[in-house]
Backbone:
């Protein structure tokens, strides 16, 4: 067993960290947030030049051939910088559908555009009352000649406001919560009948409400089996959960570093507050939570590629539940130890806390995944 | 990064499993599964079987009977031992005093003591804690005064686990009262048959008799039983306490208990269904499992790092995490196992009551559950309490 990064992987981490250290200060980030996009098109271009957009795609498809470990590295670094760019939406989610569900023709058409940073993608699945259930799909897709006509509404589509095309779950048959009869369609956001309302999310990222009113899509917009697309969506989301877990490591690690540094310089009663045992133990609780989160993230990363749907899903339930729980321990203690300054918009720690909190509500919160893991029979039900 | 076990490691795991299957006496395994206390002959019998196979002290240097396994194999061996479950070799000998003797002892001490530890011909107990010296161990007061070829030892040790079985006790004693408290301590090996030693039991809240007070009154100890140098005992004690990196989390113990919870919760009914089908119960179990899986990966990170740089025997700050989370998980599993029993957690039946002839409604697995929960409160106290572990991390890792 080897937990160390290869030389190439270490270089990837170092070069990305260096880029972000140079470009992604707290004030820089505020400036990016204030642009019309809500993120930096210049950084986006630099990430593409580094090859990050091409990273997870097979070399045969025009990619670099990275796997879950490479994605973990990138997401942790982006988390540490609290980056706003639509990497997760485009490369992890959109790229996931391309990699895992795309036909040769679809890959040939789209991977190069993602790889060079010119095409932005998103994934629309949430609907009113679907909560965290991917199978809850009321949006409809009806056959129309060779193509399909889509109608319905999707909510909280991360970076859906800037996406050129959006993967959408839509029902081709059956009732709203049936697992069968769900198709995955790639919708061009310029198509007739597509309307979007973009907004900021609590963590300073962007999302959109998406309405599809009799939107015609061609046959080539279908990814996988239009009657049974849910397994594909679940695979993509499982890999996305591993990526979010990695991002959360960056977010938690940054909060912890800020907090421990602050404990060494902030003085009260004539001494650094880090000399108080009650605060030391809180800082250790944060440290333990982060190390446990790192361990479960490594496990999830190891399982992200697994062809065993049930085992892979159990690993992701465990990871998402653990980072949700641990993230709250780290975030709430970070604010508490900072005291009043932790409450201010002008200080970084609160922004990390908000990102961590929003990671929990994406793709199922800690409670949701704990329940799903319990229903699936737990983690150690097999020989283990 | 490659987080898979190698083929060789998987084959080794199978070898270890089948050895336990073929060689652990059934009656000992039954006691382990039921969570009953083992008697001295159980330990001795099993240790001699392991030792005859060359596995009595796998982690020791090969010249002293070790196997030469790397850290990963050591870990696999222990995990499988705990999961089977088989008794672990007595820690006071093989994990505590043994490594101190082969690292700091002289040739005569190595010859006299090491083989007898490996074969459990000598039963060792640990004389560290005193009534006034718990977490602040260096404040210990037991005195050893040189008198010719002997030290004369006076004082009291406490929480001495299984001292009632012991042939020998390793003691921290004060040999210099003028020096700084850490610098006046020596490490003495004392024969329990020496006149002046009295062992008195302390009954723990589970009703068990595991721990003792040990009184030492004018106990004459030959100077050749001093380990290393006089007044350097604190260094050896720190070495001893920091030595436990592959075992402190007890991953295999918790895995075995999780399996036991699942098994027994399928037998107990709640609301007309097996308890294991109760959603709230399953979520509690899943919560523990997630923590345990994360800790297993943390443990493997520590083991893999050891394997890479060579096991230097230096305490790793990560071992403090293993202690904190490992103890919390052990306690959570013993609590949940007790919860499985419902009202049958209540009957206190330490021994079979021969006056009752009718079959009992109390499931035979129920009466040990609450005592095991009570007993396991100790795991966050011993070996450096979890609060002390947090102090260590705050200082050594966070620089506070």
Residues:
């Amino acid at each position: 067993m080897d937990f160390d990064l290869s030389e190439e992987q270490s270089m990837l981490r170092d070069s990305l960290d260096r880029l972000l250290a140079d470009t992604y200060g707290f004030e820089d980030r505020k400036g990016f947030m204030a642009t019309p996009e809500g993120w930096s098109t210049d950084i986006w271009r630099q990430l593409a030049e580094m090859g990050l957009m091409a990273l997870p795609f097979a070399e045969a498809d025009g990619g670099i051939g990275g796997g879950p470990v490479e994605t973990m590295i990138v997401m942790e670094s982006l988390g540490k910088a609290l980056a706003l760019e639509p990497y997760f939406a485009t490369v992890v989610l959109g790229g996931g559908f391309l990699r895992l569900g795309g036909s040769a023709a679809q890959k040939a058409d789209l991977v190069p555009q993602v790889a060079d940073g010119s095409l932005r993608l998103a994934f629309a699945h949430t609907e009113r009352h679907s909560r965290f259930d991917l199978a809850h799909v009321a949006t409809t897709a009806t056959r129309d000649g060779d193509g399909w006509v889509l109608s319905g509404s999707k909510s909280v589509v991360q970076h859906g406001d800037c996406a050129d095309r959006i993967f959408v779950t839509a029902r081709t048959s059956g009732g709203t919560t049936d697992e069968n009869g769900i198709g995955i369609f790639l919708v061009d956001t310029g198509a007739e009948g597509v309307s979007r309302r973009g907004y900021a999310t609590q963590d300073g990222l962007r999302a959109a409400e998406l309405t599809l009113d009799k939107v015609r899509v061609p046959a080539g917009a279908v990814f996988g089996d239009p009657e049974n697309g849910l397994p594909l969506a679940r695979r993509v989301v499982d890999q996305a959960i591993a990526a979010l877990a990695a991002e959360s490591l960056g977010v938690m690690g940054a909060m912890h570093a800020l907090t421990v540094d602050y404990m060494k310089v902030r003085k009260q009663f004539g001494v650094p507050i880090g000399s108080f045992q009650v605060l030391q133990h809180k800082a250790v609780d944060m440290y333990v939570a982060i190390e446990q989160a790192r361990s479960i993230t490594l496990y999830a990363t190891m399982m992200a590629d697994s062809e065993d749907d049930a085992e892979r899903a159990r690993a992701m339930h465990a990871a998402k539940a653990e980072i949700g729980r641990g993230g709250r321990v780290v975030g709430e203690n970070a604010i508490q130890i900072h005291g009043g300054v932790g409450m201010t918009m002008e200080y970084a720690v609160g922004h990390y806390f908000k990102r961590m909190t929003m990671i929990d509500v994406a793709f199922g919160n800690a409670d949701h995944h704990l329940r799903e893991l319990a229903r699936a029979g737990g983690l150690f039900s097999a020989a283990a | 990064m490659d987080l898979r076990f190698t083929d060789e490691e998987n084959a080794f795991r199978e070898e270890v499993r089948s050895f336990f299957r073929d060689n652990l006496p059934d009656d000992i395994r039954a006691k382990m599964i039921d969570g009953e206390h083992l008697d001295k002959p159980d330990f001795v019998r099993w240790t001699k079987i392991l030792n005859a196979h060359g596995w009595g002290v796998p982690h020791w240097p090969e010249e002293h009977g070790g196997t030469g396994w790397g850290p990963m194999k050591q870990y696999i061996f222990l995990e499988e031992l705990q999961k089977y479950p088989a008794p672990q070799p007595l820690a006071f000998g093989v994990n505590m005093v043994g490594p101190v003797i082969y690292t700091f002892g002289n040739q005569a001490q190595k010859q006299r003591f090491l083989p007898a530890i490996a074969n459990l011909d000598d039963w060792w107990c640990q004389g560290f804690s005193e009534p006034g010296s718990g977490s602040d161990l260096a404040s210990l007061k037991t005195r050893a005064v040189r008198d010719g070829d002997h030290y004369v030892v006076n004082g009291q040790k406490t929480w001495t686990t299984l001292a009632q079985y012991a042939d020998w006790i390793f003691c921290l004693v004060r040999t210099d009262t003028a020096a700084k408290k850490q610098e006046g301590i020596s490490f003495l090996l004392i024969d329990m048959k020496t006149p002046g030693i009295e062992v008195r039991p302390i009954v723990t809240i589970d009703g068990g008799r595991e721990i003792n007070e040990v009184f030492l009154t004018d106990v004459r100890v030959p100077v050749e039983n001093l380990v290393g140098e006089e007044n350097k005992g604190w260094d050896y004690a720190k070495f001893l306490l920091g030595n436990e990196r592959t075992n402190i989390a007890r991953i295999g113990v918790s895995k075995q208990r999780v399996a036991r919870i699942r098994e027994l919760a399928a037998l107990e009914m709640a609301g007309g269904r097996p308890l294991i089908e109760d959603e709230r119960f399953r979520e509690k179990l899943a919560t523990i499992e997630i923590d345990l899986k994360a800790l297993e990966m943390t443990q493997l990170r520590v083991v893999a790092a050891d394997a890479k740089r060579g096991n230097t025997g230096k305490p790793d700050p990560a071992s403090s995490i293993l202690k904190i989370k490992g103890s919390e998980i052990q306690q959570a599993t013993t609590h949940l196992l007790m919860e499985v029993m419902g009202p049958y957690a209540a009957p206190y039946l330490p021994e079979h009551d021969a006056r009752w002839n009718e079959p009992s409604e109390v499931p035979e697995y129920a009466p040990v559950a609450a005592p095991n929960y009570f007993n396991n409160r100790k795991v966050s106290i011993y070996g450096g309490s979890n609060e002390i572990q947090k102090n260590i991390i705050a200082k050594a890792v966070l620089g506070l």
About this structure: Chain A touches chain B at residues 1-6, 9, 69, 260, 263-264, 274-275, 277, 280-281, 283-285, 287-288, 291-296, 298-299, 302, 318, 321-322, 370-371, 373-375, 378-381, 384 (CB under 8 Å). The beta strands of chain A are 121-124, 140-144, 147-158, 165-171, 182-188, 194-200, 206-217, 222-223, 267-268, 271-272. Residues 230-265 of chain A form the longest helix (36 residues).
